[in-house]
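Study both lines:
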Amino acid sequence: MTSEKELYSYLFDESLPEEEMSKRQWDILDAATKIFAEKGYEGSRTSDIAKEANIAEGTIFRYFKTKKDLLIGLLMPLMIKFFKPLMFNSIEKIMNNEKNEPINVVLKNIMIDRMALVRKNKPLVKTIMIESIYHPELLEPLQKEIAPKLIPIIDKFFAENIELGNLRELDPRLITRSVMSLIAGFSVLNSLFPEVFTTEGDEKEMEKIVDILINGIGGGKK
């Protein structure tokens, strides 16, 4: 059974491989992700999850005491598959900008990279996003552990580009907040309303968003 202490250990031990969780646990969490995404937390039953995972319902309770524990347990794959790469892997590589690409190209690549992760984990992200409205404790690890580690990395990137003259002399935290809001908003709208917010493809779409971010939406008239 997964305790709260064990959960947080999984979330924030950066050296922990995915294999530390048993295959059965991953199967249960994967099934729960699909069922919660389809029916919502309140409309889902553990029997539905067990059927999706092709196990007996009682097996779920060997690992998760309640359905609420199962919902909280979804944070494990979310952190391992989404937020850890966000903090420590590809985003830092892109921000190091070893190819000395223009700032607009770097920002476009960051957005494309984040959107690829969102799409890859869409049911999981959607479930956490929706259920956090009713279960705000789902956001506590993000607020207490993820944001304090992630935001300074992005702040540093923008501060360096301000010094290089690539960006206006603004508060780096303000730029960080604006960029993160754009990425989050784009991800949410495309996930929840794909039929309304159709796109021309990631690269073209991100080029337009970065252009708005850098140049604004004003028409130049005073």
